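Exercise 7. Given the encoded structure of a 118-residue chain, write a plausible sequence.
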């Protein structure tokens, strides 16, 4: 997984935006809310953090290369480490879930603007 792959995938989602924050993190947002945090520094231990379905959080953090995300674990975010053995399709599914979980929590007006831009 590299930044170009991640950017190409995340920007396919309706209303997705990207920005660099905290000097070395690329954030993908929908409606101003983060759904993926990615380290721009290739030496970082955690490649990315994503919101996770609370029902599978405990199962996922038992997977090699996935840990509770620093500062965000209470909100059921996971961090994907460099040694993670997830296949690209599995990682894409987790990112899509993160997007959907964040999108669902947006105010109705914001969701409508994203789904039906003027």
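Solution.
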């Amino acid at each position: 997984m590299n930044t170009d792959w991640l950017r190409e995938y995340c920007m396919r989602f309706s209303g997705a935006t990207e920005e660099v924050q905290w000097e070395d993190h690329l954030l993908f947002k929908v409606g101003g809310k983060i759904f993926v945090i990615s380290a721009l520094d290739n030496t970082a231990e955690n490649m990315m953090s994503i919101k996770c379905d609370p029902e599978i959080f405990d199962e996922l953090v038992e997977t090699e290369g996935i840990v509770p995300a620093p500062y965000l674990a209470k909100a059921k975010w996971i961090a994907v480490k460099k040694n993670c053995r997830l296949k690209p399709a599995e990682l894409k599914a987790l990112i899509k879930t993160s997007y959907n979980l964040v999108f669902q929590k947006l105010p109705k007006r914001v969701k409508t603007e994203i789904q039906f831009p003027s």
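Remark. The longest strand covers residues 33-39. Students should compare their own answers with the one above.
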